[in-house]
Amino acid sequence: MRFSRLFGPTAWTVASLLPVAWANFPNFTTVPSADLDLGGLGRVALTGNFESISVYSFLGQSEITASTNGSQSLFAQLPNGAFQTLAVSDGSITAMCPFVRKDGNLFGVIVGGNFTSLAGIPTQGIALFNVSNNAVVKLSGLTGSVNAVYCDQDTDSVFVGGDFKGSSSTNAIAWVGDTGWTNMPFQGFNAPVYSIAKAANGNIIWGGSFSGLANMSVAVSTDPDDLQVINFSNATISAGPSSSEQGFSDPKNVVCQSSGKDEPGATWLVQPGVAGHWQADFNFAFQPSKIRLWNTRVNGSGTKTWRFMNNPNTANSILELRYTDPATQQETTCFQACPLSNDTNLTFQDFYFVNPITMNSFRIEISEWYGQGAGLDGIEIFQTDIFSYAIEAFNEPSCSVSGASAATAVGPWTVTPSQQSSAQYLTAKLPGPGVNSASAQVTFQPDIKQSGNYTVVVYTPGCLQDNDCSSRGIANITGTLTQGGPQIKAQVFQTNSFDKYDQIYTGYIDAGTDGFRPSITLQPLDSQNSSIDLVALRVGFTLLDPSSTGLNGLFEYDPYNASIPTEFKEDNIDAIGINLDVGASVDALLIVDQLLLVGGTFTGQNTSNFIVIDAKNNSMPIPGNGLNGPVHTQANIGNTIYLGGSFNNTNSSNVQGISNVATFDTGSKSWGSLGSGVDGPVSRVVPLGVVLSNGTTAMCMSVNGDFNNVLASGGHPSFAANGFAIWVPSQNGWLKNLGLQTHAISGQITATTNLNVNNTVNPLMSGTIVDEGYAFQFAAQLSTQGGNTTLGASGLNLQQTTSSTPLQKRDTSSDSAPVSGIYSGIFDTSNGRDLTVFGGHFQATATDSSNITNLAIINNSNNGAVTGFSAGIDTNSTVTALSVSGDTLYAGGSITGNVQNTPINGFVAWNLKTSQFNSSLPPALGGSNVTVAAISPRPSNTDIYVAGNFDSAGGLGCPGVCVFSNGMWARPGTGFNGNVSGLLWQANSKLLVVGNLSVSNTQTSIATYDATTQTWSIPNNANNVPGPIAALSPASKDGSSYWVGGQSANGSAFLMHYDGSGYETAPQLGDGSIIRSLSVLSLTQGHGSNAFLDDTLSLLVTGSLNVQPVGSVSGALFDGTSYTPFLLTNSGSQPGSLGSVITQQPQVFNSGGSQLAVGLVVLIGLAIALALLFLLVLVGLLIERHRRAAEGYRPAPQNYFEKTANMGRIPPERLFGNLNTANSPRL
């Protein structure tokens, strides 16, 4: 194969592209099992505000937040079906392919799109992603965006197409092996490329909106009337050494001066007899195509030779110029010494740049002169690009041209220094939420002198240089480009790290006249959620080559033949494009079974927007002669082709249900539908494996685009889709309609590529995917077996209502709109029943198909039949507390309504036996924002303690806590009030109350109530709790030790353990954490005892937690030393939250009540040890005594004889007299 080299093999190019290990992708690390033992708890349910939930099983799993700022990411799919983010870009990703070299080594995945950075690495439009270590290698050299890539192992090349420039290549280029960027022999195309495919014969097929090859296109006119004048008015002008003659010393005299007059104020002169220079420094960058000079002739003086220097402070800055010699009329070039004529008949001279480059400063250095010295009468510099700048001073000078480019800015705009950008620009800081589009705007009016086809691009400065990436938003672009024509519309995300441009339009633009000026308006997009920084730099207009070299959207290229044909009709594929109506745009190419399928925006004889080309490169007839609207995307599963675009039928026949998406069977050559389609344009169809709850994977087709709903079909109603839906071919239906237990996926998938690793296909995807578990909305069952944790459905068919913003812990004082979710629950197995009751703010479908709201009763003894409250409770109510006593279900919360002509506020009673409200209902609670947060029957008693945020009950003053007994309310003691979040009975008559409380006018977070003496008190050390308590859980059988959690005054979350004598603070959770519930659970494997927890216990903390390094989680297990992520949820495109853990049976603790203080435990242990030692010694003595007795030992005599009784029998001399004799023993 033969390409012209663009860059030599540099160190970064070759050394960084090292082969990667295939076996390292995907690199998934399983996290250890939680080892929970839930068997003793019976059924367990999790509730909260979420649409999906999963168990944290793999490193890299997280509660993914969908991007709303235009940035897209690379994703790998974990074995459990969730997605792991590998790299984040600052823009869109449109194409990927694995670059496998000729030797079979994978160098990485080529990633293309409209971005300026990937994983924080600056790289414009294209990068290489190393799948072994998730590293990004920048592929510098292109300016613009990449739409298509094709990795070809046979030629050791990556073919790249898009809307970009790279050296002498335009819109098409190749990366070749170790060489790097390499020009195509035809140097690209005269318009963007949108798709690339490889035909069965090995040729590369290019599709786009081009009409010719770049090296065969006729140059766009360079007539002065078609050039744009650079504005000097805001430039810094300097010169030297200037003449001291009055009126001739100011170098600004020659700016906006084209009269050629030699007079003071219109001419600049150098001091006589010396060389000089004239310099201009700008606040914006430009690429000049021509410089025009007027020579002076004051007193016979004038410039004779000169040179042009770009950025005079750098080396090698002299530029080569091309000009016509006025004496010979021959075109020639100059470099060091360009001649300037002093012919009085010559008004000015034009010099063209041989190799134009971008600059923001230049100098004219004069080396020789006529007469006494040098000088100039005028200077103009031109560029072929047409720009309209947001800063008016950068636009064309009105002194030089009529109808000059202009801009009008309205709003709080300020000038921002250019730093790394090409020019200074405007910034408007707009307050939110709900940014108003009328709060700021810039209207750009270009100087369009020639009607024709143009591309329009909006330039956006990078955000890193201003450190405002987090506050950048979305710009709404509108434009009127033809007189009386339609308005164009586009959106541009401004969160790019570095400078970028977005093509917003390609098509016809009318030239400006006295009565019409084309215009583009930039404004903020309406109703953005937060305050934003809106920026405005410039809008560019590029006149497309008006000539055609014979192509029309299709081009077949032989990579082994350096000779490019000039008669394109001799190639069948090229000829198929040529035979289409002029202006064809090919957006999607696909090869299936040697068939080339072509989709786009085009018409022709007997075809429209879709063509099938066989292996012999002949166009095949297809039913309906194509489709009646553009095809933007194609993908296949087997022989079934999925097409997406903007159509609703075939071109000449009637096929039902193909609204914006359709299928085409290459075998039967027939059309098919995906239900009834969707209600808006489809931009991408991408294959996707969906993991079902049984562990199997179903191959599906994701449908992505700008649509709101999937249309009703097959007896299923229309459902909201928000631009993303999944079709299951094996079930011939939309995933949402099939009732399968699957992962909840939202966002958009923009591209995918497959890596074959160890004979296993591993997909790599891009987009804004959010997939965080099984689609169990608001409630899920939790179970364990052998330490492994599984999730199951709740048994409710729920539909989200109103907002799904995560609820702060039972937002009891808020009068805002209710937040959807399930916030309470109970399992009732008393009196022969087997019920599961859920309360919250939701809408569900009962077994009899009726709608029920905010409370659901599931009868597990009757095949899971679902019922709810009968009429009377307002639908905007929220149930946050439940309890059963006898046959009565008590429900509390923010509940209002009217039942049996009785007003309801905060608390209601339901008879489980009759399935009706109690005949005698509790009198309504009173106060502002009444909410019940806890209901707790007194042990061995019929009294029901009700707590929350209220002031009275049935007219009785009863703030915070009230007792319902025998149909009446009673106040428990006096001196107490507050907002209660939890209740815990520590004995039959001792109640622990937590929240934001006051006892005898003393603020506290904890209080106790003695039901016998009817008195309130504050426990010792309660002042150590740093803020209101939101969560409470017993830590012992009698509740004398317990856990509390909440938020301190500084907003940080706290978790504390009371051991019977004092409070111990657990390690801090990450910033932003909110604790909503606490539950002590048993383990199958011990973690080692500590001051907080026994060896076989763990504390489940739920809510909205920040656990590093994972980040946002909804449930974490605390082992007494650290937090381990356990449960992840999502709600819409944001992290969800868990509100409560419901168990059928209470946690079983070791009997004995509270844990003792550590010091006391040590003393008791020492005493026990001493006692055991004494017992051991005593037992040893008894055993020894028994042994001696068994062996015949007898006690020695205890009577004493008379000491002198036998003393006279042996005289002393008889005893000792022979000691000194010869026979005495030796000593």
From TrEMBL:
<keyword id="KW-0812">Transmembrane</keyword>
<feature type="domain" description="Rax2-like C-terminal">
    <location>
        <begin position="907"/>
        <end position="1150"/>
    </location>
</feature>
<dbReference type="InterPro" id="IPR024982">
    <property type="entry name" value="Rax2-like_C"/>
</dbReference>
<feature type="domain" description="Rax2-like second">
    <location>
        <begin position="226"/>
        <end position="376"/>
    </location>
</feature>
<feature type="signal peptide">
    <location>
        <begin position="1"/>
        <end position="23"/>
    </location>
</feature>
<dbReference type="Pfam" id="PF20842">
    <property type="entry name" value="Rax2_2"/>
</dbReference>
<dbReference type="InterPro" id="IPR011043">
    <property type="entry name" value="Gal_Oxase/kelch_b-propeller"/>
</dbReference>
<feature type="region of interest" description="Disordered">
    <location>
        <begin position="793"/>
        <end position="817"/>
    </location>
</feature>
<feature type="compositionally biased region" description="Polar residues">
    <location>
        <begin position="793"/>
        <end position="807"/>
    </location>
</feature>
<feature type="transmembrane region" description="Helical">
    <location>
        <begin position="1156"/>
        <end position="1183"/>
    </location>
</feature>
<keyword id="KW-0732">Signal</keyword>
<dbReference type="InterPro" id="IPR048266">
    <property type="entry name" value="Rax2-like_second"/>
</dbReference>
<keyword id="KW-0472">Membrane</keyword>
<feature type="domain" description="Rax2-like third">
    <location>
        <begin position="387"/>
        <end position="543"/>
    </location>
</feature>
<dbReference type="InterPro" id="IPR048265">
    <property type="entry name" value="Rax2-like_third"/>
</dbReference>
<dbReference type="Pfam" id="PF20843">
    <property type="entry name" value="Rax2_3"/>
</dbReference>
<dbReference type="InterPro" id="IPR011047">
    <property type="entry name" value="Quinoprotein_ADH-like_sf"/>
</dbReference>
<dbReference type="Pfam" id="PF12768">
    <property type="entry name" value="Rax2"/>
</dbReference>
<keyword id="KW-1133">Transmembrane helix</keyword>
<dbReference type="GO" id="GO:1902929">
    <property type="term" value="C:plasma membrane of growing cell tip"/>
</dbReference>
<protein>
    <recommendedName>
        <fullName>Cellular morphogenesis protein</fullName>
    </recommendedName>
</protein>
